[in-house]
Design brief:
243 residues, mainly alpha, 10 helices
Length: 243
């Protein structure tokens, strides 16, 4: 097994464990590791399908809270945005994408850490379908670039003051839909190769083991403390990618 394959397997295990433990950000965690070693164009197929499998395996818990009328604007926006993301991945340099994802890591982790530190309840507000569709469009673009579709809807739900179950009932099925669409776009764009297929097969045991251990650890380790450590690492990783 070559170095690239080892790095991919290790990153998928760490990201799957963290996602199983903290319940979020598989792609952001994996990208924070992988983009120091591999170009986004090479990692995108594995990250998209890895995230799809993990989210699909845990979707049952949010099915009772799903409301299609609420979810629809996000999905419509995401469907329109995903092809643009695949196009960005195809025509943009690896360095530019790496810096962009690093900036997303900094914004996501920095915003969430600030919210936790300030201990302020979000100012709940309602929006029409158009702003929600705009967030879905931007999430679709990020999904097409490498499966990063969940970050913006998650932050948007937090800004809107949604309960945890309400927010998850939006962003988790949204992620599944966008990852499936991104996988089709990546396949059509020629990003799926024999090497990416081998990487995905090699990562499947790491994904399963990491997610299982993460879920098991959820009952043993204080989840909020683990989340703080994880967000701090994401912030530092994002800064390192930007710099």
């Amino acid at each position: 097994m070559n170095t690239a394959m080892l790095v991919m397997v290790a990153a998928c295990f760490v990201a799957a464990f963290a996602s199983g433990m903290a319940g979020f950000a598989f792609n952001l965690i994996a990208a924070g590791i992988l983009f120091h070693w591999l170009p986004p164009q090479q990692t995108a197929p594995v990250l998209v399908l890895g995230s799809f499998l993990i989210q699909l395996g845990t979707i049952r818990a949010v099915l009772p809270a799903m409301r299609w009328a609420v979810l629809r604007p996000y999905v419509i926006g995401g469907v329109l945005g995903t092809p643009f993301g695949v196009l960005v991945l195809k025509v943009t340099s690896a360095e530019a994408i790496t810096v962009g994802i690093g900036a997303l890591l900094v914004v996501y982790a920095g915003y969430t850490l600030a919210r936790i530190a300030l201990k302020r309840a979000p100012h709940a507000f309602t929006t029409g379908p158009l702003p929600d569709a705009g967030i879905g469009f931007a999430g679709g673009v990020l999904g097409g670039i490498g499966g990063f579709s969940g970050a913006l809807p998650a932050m948007w739900g937090d800004l809107k003051g949604l309960r945890k179950d309400e927010a998850r009932a939006i962003f988790q099925p949204f992620i599944i839909a966008m990852q499936a669409l991104a996988a089709i776009g990546l396949l059509a764009g020629g990003f799926f190769t024999a090497e990416s297929a081998m990487m995905l097969l090699a990562c499947l045991p790491a994904l399963a083991a990491g997610a299982w251990l993460g879920v098991r650890a959820y009952g043993l380790i204080p989840a909020e403390g683990f989340r703080l450590v994880l967000l701090t690492l994401l912030l530092l990783s994002g800064l390192s990618l930007v710099l």
